[in-house]
Amino acid sequence: MDEKVHAEYLEHASTRSQPVESYTDIDEKRLLRKIDLRIIPLFTILYLLSFLDRGNIGNARIEGLGESLNLQGMQYNLCLTIFFIFYALMEIPCNVILRYVKPKNFIPITMVLWSVVMTLMGTVKNFHQLMATRALLGIFEAALFPGISYILSMYYKKNEVLVREAIFFSAASMAGAFSGLLAAAISKMHGVGNYEGWRWIFILEGLLTFVVAVGSWFCFPLYPSECKFLTPRERDFIESRVKFSSNSGSANVEANEIVPVNMGETNANDKKWVFAVFKDWQAWCMLMVYYGVCVPLYGVSLFTPTIIKTLGYTSTRAQLMSAPIYIVAAVYSILQAWISDKVGLRSPFLLFNFLCMAVGYVVCLCIDPRDFPHTIYGACFLIALGIYPAFPLVVIWFSNNLAGSYKRAVGMAFQIGIGNFSGAFASNFYRTQDLPKFTLGHALELGFIVMGLIFMTIVVLGYIMINKKRRKDLAKGVYADYSREGLFGHGRQEPALRLQIVNTL
């Protein structure tokens, strides 16, 4: 690379690329611990309740919901499907609203609304009432996950956010464990107030969410620029370090590699970024990768108690035996995310997750649960070890490669929102007539896993070609005179940023 051109590029970039260095009076690690303690526990509890409330219908089913409401044929599956349709449709609108309405108000309000719906679900008398409450639950739950993910991306650098997201997403797997244990206990209330045990599952868990939702309003974090528990200087520092962070941590930088200075991100609320997401090839490919993770995720979360019960256990024993699967998955999710952030890699870990899922479902397809129930139970562990760590990983990998807070907000809602139609698919895979092997359900889940693996390969190869071209252009000085807005006009991270894949060490 021509030294003069390189020097000019660095000089041009450095006029607005080194703000973090001026905050030498701030202890960065101490500040991050302060933010972690204020944000992560709250988000973890909120997401645990979200997953608990959407998934407890699986626990209610094995406690007699279907018999009480006289559900016929695919009616139970339709009640699962309607939730995901409305949940997916509302995700993008909710995340756009979060750009104009303070999350401190919007998210707790939606939580209060879904907690009321959850409680009322315990009083339904027929299929149609259950359908209506599930639809409303999907509408009101839609804001939480993309909202939390977006807020995290405003506080943490790209190589810090995965482990935080994995911690709060581990609440999803812990919800599976907690739900099974809680349902086993609550079901003992059968007959109290002339209500069946499954009704008390909905009522008590809804009331719990209501109490937490009201309390969360008093401690819910604002955006960094308005955050009350940070000093004005700390707010500026957090915004600067996030805006001027790069995709690649030092672990990925070779000694002989030229790593240009990041010029920062633009936070412009330009509506063109909405259309930019829909025209971005990586958005559609990453959506398919997301389907490869989410379809198995919802299949596992909704049907694991039923699958375990078919192995010959009582309903209470099935509730309890599902708990260890989720606990192991939660611990590994955090461990994998921590390692991924440390080494600055995403795709190798995602590959491992897909392989775990695939092997687990192949075992379920090849083994008869009536002959080898413990083998099927072991396969459930393997599937969970693949699914739960992969979910935050695929979300953060995509987020890392979207430039600008507005495009990132829309892009994450696009992936999560449209991707959550996967729940509508998965909720119809496991049919009563397929008991006890569930061959159709397992085969369809495996098919989506293979699809996700294929599109992940396409994304990696695409990133390799893009990075190769950008390095050549950078060496030629093509970007030396670009403004920050001009670079962002390309619709992705500026060329100075390398995309996070194993091939860009």
TrEMBL record:
It is found in: Membrane. GO terms for cellular component: membrane. GO terms for molecular function: transmembrane transporter activity. Residues 39-470 form the Major facilitator superfamily (MFS) profile domain. It comes from Metschnikowia pulcherrima. Its main location: membrane. This is Major facilitator superfamily (MFS) profile domain-containing protein. Gene3D superfamilies: MFS general substrate transporter like domains. PROSITE patterns: MFS. It comes from the Eukaryota. Keywords: Membrane, Transmembrane, Transmembrane helix, Transport. It is a multi-pass membrane protein.
